[in-house]
Design brief:
The protein is α+β, with helices and mostly antiparallel strands and 249 residues long. It folds into two domains: 109 residues, Roll (Ubiquitin-like (UB roll)), CATH 3.10.20; 131 residues, Fumarate Reductase Iron-sulfur Protein, Chain B, domain 2. 36% of the residues lie in helices and 11% in strands. The strands form two sheets. A five-stranded mixed beta sheet has the order 2-1-5-3-4. Helix 3 packs antiparallel against helix 5 and helix 5 packs across helix 8. 34% of the residues are buried.
């Protein structure tokens, strides 16, 4: 396959970025999108040119690092996959592919396709934890009975990898799907009840302070989420938030 790539290049957050054109050939349909980017970078390095900076880590679809906007879609044209799981068979010989970083005010560009997503870390630090006695008095996991329905829903919410596709896709750059997934995975389990009130208030407060937009129930976040996190979690977040507000008054 021969492809025309239009890639966003930006030296840092202070500099002005632009789309630059690159041609690449000998790409096979079985390559992943990141492998294609590796081939391009090898060519650039061999020409003594600056390679394209992009995030990646596990390349197994579970770390959430490989965030790219590909042809106007977070993680590209496939569904329920991250960029590292996207294969070049989704494109045709001669295609033009636009590759850009995730766009959101709380995610400033570090370089090229790499953005600073530490805002998610700060939201998690605000309340994404439980009190556990680790001094040798911990209970066996099976000692607390949990309904399978609740356990399944908590597990589904916990599959969120914090890739930020929801934010990049949302017209308001809302982080509600991410925050709701983190709140849900604790609120559904008895271990998460201790900090329930403070957790949701603190995480929502931090989300607002980071500058994320409001949710208007468009649903684009669920569609583009590589883990299929449901909008039901946002409804649960709203309920938990209202309960916490009443308790705190």
């Amino acid at each position: 396959m021969k492809l025309n790539l239009k890639i966003w290049r930006q030296e840092n957050n202070k500099s002005k970025g632009e789309l630059r054109d690159y041609e690449i050939s000998n790409i096979t349909p079985d390559m992943s999108f990141l492998e294609m980017m590796d081939v391009l970078n090898e060519e650039l390095i061999n020409r003594n040119e600056d390679p394209v900076a992009f995030d990646h880590d596990c390349r197994e679809g579970i770390c959430g690092s490989c965030s790219m906007f590909i042809n106007g879609q977070a993680h590209g044209p496939d569904r329920l996959v991250t960029t590292c799981q996207l294969h070049m068979r989704k494109f045709k010989d001669g295609d033009t592919i636009f590759i850009e970083p995730f766009r959101a005010k709380p995610f400033p560009v570090i370089k090229d396709l790499v953005v600073d997503r530490s805002a998610f870390d700060r939201i998690q630090h605000a309340g994404g934890y439980i009190s556990v006695n680790t001094s040798g008095n911990t209970q066996d996991a099976n000692a607390i009975p949990i309904e399978k329905r609740d356990a399944d829903k908590a597990f589904d919410a916990a599959t969120c990898i914090g890739c930020a596709a929801c934010v990049a896709t949302c017209k308001n750059a809302s982080a509600m799907l991410f925050v709701s997934a983190k709140v849900s995975q604790y609120s559904l389990l008895p271990q998460g009840k201790v900090e329930a009130t403070d957790r949701v208030l603190n995480m929502v407060k931090q989300m607002d302070e980071e500058g994320f937009g409001n949710c208007t129930n468009t649903g684009a976040c669920e569609v583009e989420c590589p883990k299929g996190i449901s909008l039901e979690n946002i409804a649960r977040l709203n309920r938990e938030f209202l309960k916490a507000k009443y308790k705190s008054q």
